[in-house]
Amino acid sequence: LTACSMMGAQLKGKEDSITLRLKGNGPADLTTVCLELAANMLYMAGKGSLEECRKLAEGAMADGSALDALANMVKGQHGDESYIYHPEKFPRSALSKEVKAEKDGYVCHMDTESIGIASVCLGAGRSRKDDVIDYKAGIILKKKYGEPVKAGETLAVLYADDEKLFAEAEKKLLAAYEIGDTKPAEEPLVYDRVTA
Question: How far apart are CA 185 and CA 46, in angstroms?
Fold first, then answer.
């Protein structure tokens, strides 16, 4: 399971700011996980019961104050907060490549580690500490766990500035997707809470 659709520094920042700009109407799985994490952080800070804190988090997303808080965090780290309000300002990679499903079925499993490795192949992460990160590189997932897919349909889009990086990333990404004949059982995004 994965609760985000975009991997890579700028793509992820764009997805997060868009989700907050849409006041919780972004990807449902990402919104659910973010609200759960925010509610638990507020709860640990003593802001009320877990249910009260969930309502606080939902309210902050709905009224736009969560977006403003993210912009203030970026500004506080000497970043340009205008990117939070205008994610279209994020630069794009020069090249993209669609990765297509090889058969019909349902996404029954996604190996998230392999997807992460695929993003490293594109330059979006490091395999060694001295590797340079391409902040524009990454992956946008078009199909996620439990979703139906047809042969030839786009599973994901790869982004990089060097076409030579696509082959290995595509191979890793295709291996990360398991397409089965039957729709898999729905699984929770959050399994449990760890408490003291």
Answer: 36
